[in-house]
Amino acid sequence: MKSANQLNRTELPTVMDSLVEFLMVTRTDGEGLITYTNHNFLASSNWTPKRILGKSFWQMFSEDEHNQAQAHAIWNRVSNGKSWFGKVEKMTRHGEPYFVQMMAIPTMDANGTLESSTFLELDVTEEVKLKEKLQQIAFIDFETGLMSRHKLETLVNDYIEEGRHFSFVYIAIDHYYTLKDLQSYDSESVLIQEFTNRLKRYFQGDAIARVGVSQFVVLTSFGDWFVQGFLQFLKEQPIYVENHSLPLSVSGGIVRFPEDQQTYSHLYKAALTATKSIIELGGGRISSLSAESHKDLNRRSLIDKKMLTALDHRNLQVVYQPQLDIATGKVLVYEALVRWEDEEIGPIQPDELIPIAEENGLIHAIGAFVIEEAATLAMKLMTDKPDVRISVNTSVREFGDSSQMKEKLTSILERTKCPPHKIEFEITEKFAFQAEQEQAIVNQMKVLEDEGIQFILDDFGTGYASFRYMQQLPISKVKIDKVFINSLLTMPKTRQLVEGMILFGKSMGQYIIAEGVETEEQFEALKEMGIDAVQGYYIGGPVNGDEIT
Ligand code: C2E
Ligand code: CA
Ligand code: CA
What we know:
Helix content is about 45%, strand content about 25%. By secondary structure, the protein is α/β, with parallel strands linked by helices.
């Protein structure tokens, strides 16, 4: 039997045939969608021919910002008809990193637009790992001679033990990848070298480490004003690459020991957070976090730390908010909302809890807990309120790779003996955006829908492609976000928008819900517009399961 990649291979120019013996080869169309891969690529990346075709070039890179930025820079060059050569970190189908030396070669059509792009790659993972290992042993970054990250950690721990006072300064070069994109490949190392020299000259005698491709850490006993002076110094001492000066700016974050944070990982995290917020504001500054932000960070790490115990001890609760069906005048659905009250931290709202759980992976366990509670309640309500269903908020992470959500749900429904049609899943537009890209999730949704689970598009109208999702995903209900209901009666434009949403949704055969309805006036206005159901404090806030039964 011939696989897809073998079939396609005949299309390749013959010169490549001899190369493919030892190189990994992939080819994309002008949009970056993979049209061909050879056997070597499949072997390294663990993809199967059937699954890889049609995936995008970007999906082959790890998700972190650095790698995605690099992928975009490469694609930019290729789109402009320029080839690219360099080292890249990629990701196997199972999310494991591997390293390649890559050459990207564009093929342009007669109009000068990209027709296809060929990627030749040599696996250099062993080399990279060896280098990392050596750097770890030698405690040094080979390219710059600065301390490595490992050395930085040991040194910071020594400082802490000695009780020294110091500032932990994180410094990142702004727009590194777009800068690099302007230059040839060699100029990258000139730039890093020259930048290192500037750091060494300015922070004389201070410990300096390279912690990423274009990220550095300085440990200094000087104050903020001195650290910030580095920006001016960079302006006065411009870096020349290929005979012209680069307009270089940096972003950075300063965290003090012992005042702000007390351990290496906390210092690092806080300095990185400070830098990221500077970058979000446009970059070009070095600053410290406010005491308030440090408090937030510490709270976050405390929540992170305590979450597992809370789950173990079943310290989480689920409350239920009623949704009134207009046609019958009855509450037909209760939305399950998770609650957590910790003795030390106090109440933790889901808006704070869920993002942390998504990050630390506990979202799976929390999701399972909420579904199990919801299914148990739905069963209890069977006799007295046979029409009532429970809707559960879900996070895209819970859908995992291919059938994670389905397996989780099936086992819970079996255990609780709850029929599937008693449960609805709410998904947000952020979720929908990812689901649309990830066919596996859409397929899973379709399987679940076949089994009787209904999907609700939550926070409708807050994303940028709401109407498209409504058409493409297996969704039977739409929940208009509370921001629209908020200004429904105060802004005429909002009123028109909501009217439009209801009309369009209904024409698509959807059941339309409004959330965050707080007043009688809002309720009446929505009813007049033909809304199917309303939810909000006007109908009732969240209550305990016992209060419903
Ligand atoms: P959401 O799904 O949009 O939930 C509605 C939120 O609005 C709830 O906040 C609810 O208490 C609040 N709310 C209800 N009626 C009104 C009203 O009339 N006016 C106003 N201003 N607010 C109202 P909550 O419980 O803090 O939940 C926040 C978000 O956290 C939820 O937004 C949902 O996206 C997420 N969430 C909650 N529980 C879970 C869960 O178990 N799993 C997942 N993945 N996410 C959850
Ligand atoms: Ca919801
Ligand atoms: Ca919502």
